[in-house]
Amino acid sequence: MTTSGSLTRHRVAAAAVVAGTATFLGGAFVDLPTETAELPGIARDAITSAIPDWHDPEVVSVVVYGTRGFDTFGETFLLLAAVVGVIVVCRGRERRRVFLQEERLGRREQAEARRARGEARRGRRRQEVEHAEDIEQGQAEDSGEGDAGIGARGHVSAPAMTVVVRTAARPLLLVLVVAGAYLLALAFTPGGGFPAGGVLAGVVLLAYVAYGYRAVRRVVRPALLEAFELAGAAAIIAIEVVGLVLKGSMSANWLPIGQEKTFFGGGILPAFSAAEFVEVATGVLIAVFSLLAMEREWTEADQEEAGAERNAGEATA
Amino acid sequence: MIAVNYLAAAALFCIGLWAVLTRRNLIKIVMGLSLMESSMYLLLVSMAYRKGGTAPVLLDLPEGRSVDSVVQGAAADPVLQSFCITAVIIGVAVTGVFLAVVVRVAEHYRTLDADDVRVMRG
After folding, report:
1. What is the pTM of this model?
2. A36 CB near a chain B CB, below 8 Å?
3. In this predicted complex, what is the ipTM?
4. What is the largest CA-CA distance in chain B?
5. What is the pLDDT confidence band of residue A90, given thresholds at 50, 70 and 90?
6. Do B13 and A284 touch (CB under 8 A)?
7. Do B86 and A83 touch (CB under 8 A)?
C-alpha cells in the first residue's frame, strides 16, 4: 500500500513537471519564426558570403566548416569526449594477478560434482573451460554457436546471416560506399564529412550484421580506429590553429581558393570536411563496437542467485 | 502550418520527459532521452523551413530565383540545418555513453530497475 501510494505521488509530481514544461514550451514556441518570416541576419550573411568568400554554393557546408567552424570545432571535441567516455566505461578488466571468480566457481563445481558423483560431467566442464581458454589465446576458433561462456566477447560469437541477407547486402554496400564517397569528395554537398562519416560507419555495421564479425575484424581494431580518430582530431586542430596564426582567427581560410564548384573550391572547407569524416566514422564505430564487445563479468550462477535474492526480497516486502 | 511541427516537437519532448521521470527501466529512460533529443531535431528543421523556399544551395537556382531573393527568405535557414547535422552525430555518441553506463549498472547491480540502484542514497 505504501509502495503504491509513493508510486502515485511520484506520478503526480512527474505529471506536474511535464505539464509545467509543456506550458513553458507552448509559451516559448508562440514567438518562434513562422514559415513566412525573413531569414535571420546570421543566415543572410552566410548565404551572401558563401560564393564571394568561399567559392562554395552549398551554404550548409559553408556554415558548418566555415562561418561557424569554431562551433563545429567544439562539437568535434564533444564527440571525442563522448567516444573516450564510452571507451573508458566499456573497458574490460585489467589483466589479473589474482583469482577472482575461479575459486568460487571451483568450489561450487566440486560440490556439484560430489553430489552428482558424475565424473563425466566434470570432464565436460573442464573441456569447455580449456576450449574457452584456447579461444582467448587464439589457439582455437570459436564455433560461433550459442553462448561461449564466461568472458566470451559478444561480437566473436556473432555469426553471418542467411544467404538472402548476404546477397542483398552486397549491392547495398556498393551503393552506400558510392554515396559516402560522393558526399565526401564533392565539397558542395550538404554537411560533407558529417553525413559521409555516418554512411561509412553504416557500411561497416551492415557488413558486420550481414557477414559476421570475421568480415570486419581487420577494420574494427582499437589500434587502427583510435589512431585514425586521434589523427582526425589533430588535423582539425591544425586547420583551425593555422588559421589563427596566419589570419588572426580560428576557421579563417588560409588555403588558396580554387574554382567554384570544384573540390578545391572551398579553401579549408574540404580539408575540414575530410578530417571531420574520419573523426565521425571512427568515433561512431568505436562507440558501437565498444558496446558490442563489452564482456559479461558475472556467471550464470551469480545471475540466478541475484534473481533468487531479489524474488525473496520482493516476497518479504 | 509550421505550428503543427512546433506542437509535435513540444509533445515529443514532453513524452520523452515523462518517460525519464516515470519509467524505472534504465533502457526506457535512455529511450526517453533519445525522444527528447529527436524533438530538438524536429524543432530545428521546422524553424529552418520557409514556405515556398528552396534548399540553401546556390547552384542551379530555380527559374526566377536569384541569390538576392534567397537572401530575402526564399530558402531554408542554413544555420539551423547545420546545427541539426552536428546534433544528430553528437546524439548518437551521447546515446552510446548512456547505454554503456546502463550495461555497467546492470553488471554491477544485476538489475535494470533504477529503484534498485540505491548506493547513492547512503
Report:
1. 0.76
2. yes
3. 0.86
4. 69
5. confident
6. no
7. no
